[in-house]
Design goal:
The protein is mainly alpha-helical. The chain is 69% helix and 2% strand. The chain has a domain at 90-240. It is globular and about 55 Å long. The model is unreliable at 87-94 and 397-402 (pLDDT under 50).
């Protein structure tokens, strides 16, 4: 069955590419990522076999995500229908404010210094290995003696600064290199493998699209990154993981965990607590509303961990949608993610560089849907990226200093 569903999704991706001629359009990327992943799962995974029910869930998710992307990606006027800009054209048509670009660049550099100091102080006050302490300090930063506070916004500013430098027409190699180093350092102090994977995937997609770098070279870099992350995991983890298990855990385990969630019909006691946690948080801060804990009926986890049989605490982009709303969440939230992707892709094609930069982040979330949810859980980050890119690209006539 898994091969059949993989072929169906790859066929949908091929038909979408035949119509769009753009591999980075959401109509192509969504089914392509899932179809390729299911094929890899069937060939190489040593984890539990996926049930027919979860395969139907994945298929329904893809169909409604595709519909959302298609509908909201349609041109809404004859003028837009005639536009065929690519991601590079949009930046050339609407340049970025050089002053705000410089502000982001220097803020990311200066703001990284206190973050490095805070991370160092936290990591040296705990009893475990330094790298293990870094991860613990990031996950539990609100409980630590030294907290990021307002400097946490530097993570998003640095990310936007890197994307702006990569996309800007007046590229400065020195700035690009410094921005990548800054983001690498920020990923390092969190000790989050997801941060490294996210940054590497984003840079890779941009490199393929804009700089036409050889795919062989990119593949070599990704292989080196994989082994670097494996080595990093060995250094930071108390329990050592064999390489083959590492591949299963960080590539396939999320979907195996989703299968367990669907089969056991695991549901949130507070609908929306995972997918709309940002809304709960805003309501709690501004209106003193309740911030409920994450609790589930039919909870099959052990302290938040699934065993499939290897341990994992992620369950793809679909997991939270299912636990919060079941089939309704798969259909509606899948459509919403597709609609967001289609909207930003259409705005990018129309020549809006703010949308191009934002879409470069969204396209990465689409490529990594089988890992975890990066849209709803990071809704505040998406809002920050949109606001920062709008500020940099819409305010073109604000004073410029050189």
């Amino acid at each position: 069955m898994i091969i059949l569903f993989s072929v169906l999704l790859l066929l949908l991706a091929y038909l979408s590419y035949y119509l769009k001629k753009k591999v980075f359009s959401p109509e192509v990327l969504i089914p392509l990522a899932w179809g390729s992943f299911l094929l890899l799962y069937s060939l190489f995974s040593n984890l539990n076999e996926l049930s027919d029910k979860v395969l139907y869930v994945i298929l329904i998710w893809n169909i409604f995500s595709w519909l959302g992307a298609y509908i909201f990606g349609l041109p809404i006027s004859r003028r837009q229908l005639s536009q065929t800009y690519n991601l590079n054209d949009s930046i050339q048509r609407e340049d970025i404010n050089s002053s705000i670009r410089s502000v982001y660049y220097y803020l990311s550099i200066v703001g990284t210094i206190p973050l490095l100091y805070i991370a160092y102080k936290n990591a040296t006050t705990l009893s475990n290995a330094f790298l293990t302490n870094l991860r613990h300090a990031d996950v539990h930063n609100g409980e630590m003696e030294y907290q990021y506070g307002i400097f946490r916004y530097v993570f998003t500013i640095a990310l936007v600064s890197m994307l702006v430098e990569l996309f800007a027409t007046s590229n400065k190699k020195c700035r690009i290199i410094v921005s990548i180093i800054v983001n690498f350092l920020l990923a390092f102090i969190t000790m989050s493998k997801t941060s490294f994977v996210f940054m590497a995937t984003m840079i890779t997609l941009i490199a393929i699209h804009k700089y036409k770098i050889s795919k062989i070279k990119i593949l070599m870099v990704l292989v080196m990154l994989f082994f670097a992350l494996y080595g990093l995991n060995e250094q930071r983890s108390i329990v050592k993981v064999p390489l083959i298990d590492y591949i299963d855990i960080y590539l396939f385990s999320g979907t195996a965990a989703l299968d367990e969630i669907v089969i056991n019909d695991m549901r949130s006691l507070h609908p929306g607590i995972s997918t709309f946690r940002f809304v709960y948080a805003v309501n709690s801060k501004l209106f003193k509303g309740e911030m409920p804990e994450k609790k589930y009926n039919h909870n099959i986890t052990k302290n938040g961990w699934f065993f499939v049989p290897l341990p994992t605490n992620v369950y793809t982009v679909i997991g939270d949608c299912w636990t919060d709303f079941g089939w309704f969440g798969v259909i509606v939230l899948g459509f919403i993610i597709g609609a967001l992707s289609g909207f930003f892709y259409r705005q990018s094609k129309q020549g809006h560089s703010w949308a191009t930069i934002t879409y470069s982040w969204i396209v990465t979330t689409l490529a990594l849907q089988f890992f975890a949810d990066y849209i709803f859980r990071n809704l505040s980050i998406l809002i920050q990226i949109v606001l920062l890119t709008l500020l940099a690209c819409k305010f073109k006539w604000v004073f410029k200093w050189h």
